[in-house]
Amino acid sequence: GPMRVSTGSLPPAETVRALVREAWEHFAPVTDGHVADYIPALAEADPSLFGLCIAGVDGRSFALGDADHAFSIQSMSKPFVFALVCEALGGGIARERVGVNATGLPFNSVMAIELNAERTMNPMVNAGAIATTSLVPGANIEAKWAFIREGLSRFAGRELAMDERVYTSEAATNQRNQGIARLLHGYGRLYADPDEATELYTRQCALNVTAHDMAVMGATLADGGVNPVTRERVVDADRCQRVLAVMATAGLYEHSGDWLYEVGLPGKSGVAGGIVTIAPGKGGLGVFSPPLDAAGNSVRGQLATKFLSEALGLNLF
Ligand code: DON
């Protein structure tokens, strides 16, 4: 379809519906990429699954394909936990303790910690995300877990639950994240017990969502923090601006520059194959397709999002 210039709202419903269908049909045959296998439970994912959903700030949604298939949120949890922590502690404190600059390195980079005197660079990569999770308020681990699970559920507008298989699989194989947490602890850049922080981070990554959930969660950030379906305010509008800025900077890791250049919107990927993208003031887009590129970003997710950003006139620039 033709590229549109960004306007104040999503195009009419029939246009959105037709373009979602066009994106799905166009990219369904793509077979590039490989499902994540460093978390054993994710290696079993069906590479043919492909779900798309757009949720508008008016509460309408347009879903197609496997948009109701449950998969683990993984790194897409990071911006939402950061938003909740900013809300609880104040954005200034969160920024000072975690950072908001790009690393230019893979999501689980230890070198990024060693190369930068600040140690944690931003809440989208594992180091900064584990540091963010270590800032979650609560008297004990279960209170902190409730804060995360209930907060992410408010973004989704429904009760989210953990995928026990993914959690168990990742908890048995997350030595690298345990190492990152300990390294940060050694640098005074972790704000809770390192094992507790890694445990909570692993649980948060194993929360199950659907492409439809991710679209609504994205639409909540697009709507200045109000869930457009439940009408509940989840976070303040100024938090959303900050979270979207850090997503634009680092949401697709070392490919964040290419993403912003091509899509022109803040987005966040997860290794289970999800990508959530936010069109501020307009809505959220959730895509699910397990095969990933070398940076850990869904191949079809990126293609479909780029297509829809152009066709719907969502590019911010
Ligand atoms: O910490 C990990 O390795 C995973 N729980 C999340 C990584 C992830 O989703 C990276 N994304 N594209």
UniProtKB/TrEMBL annotation:
This protein's UniProt keywords: Acetylation, Hydrolase
Residues that bind substrate: 75, 126, 170, 177, 201, 253, 271
Annotated source species: Sediminicoccus rosea
Family: Belongs to the glutaminase family.
HAMAP family registered for this protein in UniProt: Glutaminase
Descriptive protein name: Glutaminase
Gene Ontology terms, MF aspect: glutaminase activity
Self-association state and partner proteins as the record states: Homotetramer.
Keyword Methyltransferase among UniProt keywords: no
Reaction(s) catalysed (UniProt annotation): L-glutamine + H2O = L-glutamate + NH4(+)
Listed NCBIfam families: Gln_ase, PRK12356.1
Gene3D superfamilies for this protein: DD-peptidase/beta-lactamase superfamily
Enzyme nomenclature, EC number: 3.5.1.2
